[in-house]
Amino acid sequence: MRISPKTVWKAFQKDPLLPLLLPECRTIENSITELKWIKENFNNNYTKKDRLNLIKKSCLKRQKHYPLQYILGDQPFGKLDILCRPGVLIPRWETEEWCHELIELMNENVMQKSNETMGGIETKLRYIDLCTGTGCILLLLAASLNLKDPMGIDISSKAISLANQNLQHNVSYYKNSLSQPKFLQKDVFEMDPTKENLPHFDLVTSNPPYIHDHLHSKSVKIYEPKLALYGNLEFYKNLVGKWCNQTDSFVYELGSIHQAQYVRDCLSNEEWDVGVYKDSANHIRCVYGYRKKNISVANIHWKKVFEKFGTLFAAKKKTKKNT
């Protein structure tokens, strides 16, 4: 929908830079908010002339749908401040939302067992995040839960570099951890968890490429990395083919119900419960699953966690064999 000349003129009267922000912000109110953030981003460390030039250049970029987070350089993600750079996917509010809910439910359902009860076995959760990008999911979970050797994997060297920067940028949350998050550059399609000396995980998360190419804005389509955006079933086939054998639970973001149904159809009713999580906009956002009987000795009640996290699929009906 085109912006009316009247709206453009009204915006110009408030501030000559506001019309540059209208194509992306769509309203004067949103444009005023963005301009305020952009101005605050270029503080008194600059001369007045340089500051005005940087603000104008930033507004011209926004006119061309350049992502605001790349201009500001960061994005809040829960209690963390996540650095954002071109070439790495920007964290979304939808991801932040399900992470918060998962953390809350996991903390509520940690079973109180002493080391004596567990025979002195270390019972911290073992956790891996695939397609980690900025590291936002892993870093928030690691800052909020009792984890052991949390690990993030991504094929992109830019992503791994930025994830490590984000670890250092938020390092105050991990000073008391026995194990800081670790990020490794690997291709999840070439990894074989059983041959890489990896432990059995309590939880695997991923925000894999899943968006069909007609489902996003110009800002995303033009400027964010296609490697991190586009996909269909590839990563869900990888999940059920490799990673489900190596974990007691998983949460994967997705773009459509058929991706969740694929995961459900591939996993055994006898071993797994599978469900979907909807965000606050009522869009299906994640497929998740947990083993009905844990392999790990970690003190967490996955059934209680995931029964509240989303909606479980009904059990698949058994087909009768012809006699």
From TrEMBL:
GO cellular component: mitochondrion
Source superkingdom: Eukaryota
InterPro entries: HemK-like, Methyltranfer_dom, N5-glutamine_MTase, SAM-dependent_MTases_sf
Residue ranges occupied by any Methyltransferase domain in the UniProt entry: 123-210
Swiss-Prot/TrEMBL GO biological process terms: methylation
A Pfam cross-reference name: Methyltransf_31
Any one Gene Ontology molecular-function term assigned to this protein's record: protein methyltransferase activity
Keyword vocabulary terms for this entry: Methyltransferase, S-adenosyl-L-methionine, Transferase
NCBIfam families referenced in this protein's UniProt entry, alphabetically: hemK_fam (TIGR00536)
Name of the protein described by the UniProt record: Mitochondrial N(5)-glutamine methyltransferase MTQ1
Protein's organism: Hanseniaspora osmophila
Native organism taxonomy: Eukaryota, Fungi, Dikarya, Ascomycota, Saccharomycotina
